Amino acid sequence: MPSPRRNAEGRPLAACAPSSSGSPVHGGGGGRFEFQSLLSSRAPGADPTCARLRASESPVHRRGSFPLAGAGSSLALPSPLPEEDRMDLNPSFLGIALRSLLAIDLWLSKKLGVCAGESSSWGSVRPLMKLLEISGHGIPWLLGTLYCLSRSDSWAGREVLMNLLFSLLLDLLLVALIKGLVRRRRPAHNQMDMFFTLSVDKYSFPSGHATRAALVSRFILNHLVLAIPLRVLVVLWAFILGLSRVMLGRHNVSDVAFGFFLGYMQYSIVDYCWLSPHNAPVLFVLWNQQ
User: Fold this and answer.
1) Please, are residues 24 and 18 in contact by the beta-carbon 8 Å criterion?
2) Beta-ladder partners of 24
3) Are 39 and 20 a contacting pair, CB within 8 Å?
4) CA 38 and chain centroid, separation
5) Among 25, 276, 2, 256, which Cα is nearest to 136's?
6) Is 137 a catalytic residue?
7) What whole-number distance in Å separates Cα of residue 40 and Cα of residue 127?
8) Residues 178, 230 contacting (CB under 8 angstroms)
9) Exactly one of 61, 209, 223, 278 is catalytic; which is it?
10) Phi-psi category of 23—alpha, beta or left, where left has phi over 0 and alpha has psi -120 to 50?
11) N or C, where is the chain less crowded by C-beta within 10 Å?
12) What residues contact 20, with CB distance under 8 A and at least 6 apart?
């Protein structure tokens, strides 16, 4: 007959084998057997070695197990953070690309703003840039077109000038609408001392001077017969005018780039809706009566 197993102190281990219900403690009994093992470990005369064995085999002390529901509040899991306080650890590729382009746009605009103030690196060129700014302003172009239209005595000249007036009004309307929708502030290094401003001029996107420069230059190149040097001067005027908006600190680079694109597309709209004595005879008749 085999002899019972003994512990280090020479006592038999038979006391910790069965429970009061007749089933082993380290079976699949769950919480009831665990409670019984704790009670038996606290009972007077209980073997401390058996208590340590029961505690080590308890599911609570196994690796990866969770504390009981009745444990103290210090062991409770932390409450989840609100939705607005959580950090987006997996942003989309499009969001990263847009933020990177915006950062590059702001950095490049600040580097090119060399005439933003009198104390800037090119502050002495600021009066010349402001004069160039006036050459692309909407008010001089509207007044000049109305004056030439009133002095014109040919149907062909009136047709061209009336469509130029229509394109200028369309440009003002679209730029004001987009500025009101986007509401992008002008660069922080800008000194707001423009020739003439409206309520929408406190916004930056898109550049009205850039749209007007692209629109007027394309209009002139398509409807006026000019020599090649004059055509080159028209293109240079549009390009330098857009560049001056960034150098003066009025706009960011993206404002001017989108302004050039918008002005180029505006001429396509004007060319498609071209006003003539055949499709808009009322306008020409009313103008002749005046």
Assistant:
1) yes
2) 18
3) no
4) 61
5) 256
6) no
7) 96
8) no
9) 209
10) beta
11) N
12) 36
Nearest-5° Cα angle at 63, 57 to 67: 85
Contact yes or no for 199/243 (Cβ under 8 A): no
Confirm if 115 and 129 have CB atoms less than 8 A apart.
yes
- Rounded CA-CA distance 74/115 in Å is 62
In sequence order, the β-bridge partners of residue 185 are 203
How far is Cα of residue 222 from the mean position of the Cα atoms in its chain? 38
Residue type, 275: L
Q: Clarify whether 209 is annotated catalytic.
A: yes
How many other C-beta atoms are found inside a 10 Å radius of the C-beta of residue 118? 10
CB 211 within 8 A of CB 141: no
Q: Which of 75-79, 166-170, 200-204 has the highest mean pLDDT?
A: 166-170
Q: What is the pLDDT of residues 184-226, one digit of tens each?
A: 999 988 888 887 777 778 899 999 999 999 999 999 999 988 8
pLDDT in tens, 227-256: 999 999 999 999 999 999 999 999 999 999
Q: Return all residues near 278 (Cβ < 8 A) that are at least 6 apart.
A: none
pLDDT for 91 beyond 60: yes
